[in-house]
Amino acid sequence: YMEQYGAVSIGSFYTFGLIGIWDIKDDWSIVPAAPPQQKGIVIKTREQALRVLADWELRRMTWLPFYGAHLKNNIIVKMAKDWHVQGAMIHLNRGCEGSALSQMENRAALMEAGIPTLMYEGNMGDPREVDASQVLERVEAFMESLGLTKLSA
Questions:
Q1: DSSP character for 127?
Q2: pLDDT digits over 36-71, tens only?
Q3: Rounded alpha-carbon distances, angstroms, from residue 113 to 14, 116, 132, 147
């Protein structure tokens, strides 16, 4: 739907955080984490293997909101600036409390950084709780607020 306006969705904190393993730099930029083998780690014991696995899993950005909104705010604002984002959409997800943590604070941080933000409601666990026509109306209004119009076919 957004492509009709010439807009491109680059991804989301949720998908990057759920699937990717990242190192977070001091300036809050993210880079793919080097696997243990590339770091020269040779796993010799079960305990060491479990520690390496725990370290690896704890690098998922998905866990950041559980430690405080400011952490997720720093990452998403940095991502938005690095990737020259012109607008952000936040899914107020009633189906996953973890992904919904700190979303209002995230919106405030993006807006404070000058990034227009659209919020819409839904439930990733129950598609009956999504009013698709309302979401599309909101997206359309958001695209127009960014100065975009539908491209001709």
A1: G
A2: 999 999 999 999 999 999 998 888 888 888 888 999
A3: 20, 9, 29, 19
Model's pTM, two decimal places?
0.85
Cα gap 88→15, rounded to integer Å:
15
| DSSP, residue by residue, 34-51 | PPGGGGT----SHHHHHH
User: Who contacts 123 (Cβ-Cβ below 8 Å, separation ≥6)?
Assistant: 93, 94, 95, 129, 130
Residue 35 has pLDDT above 70, yes or no: yes
Residues linked to residue 117 through DSSP beta bridges, in sequence order: 88
CA 43 – CA 54 distance, rounded (Å): 13
CA angle 144, 92, 9 (to 5 degrees): 50
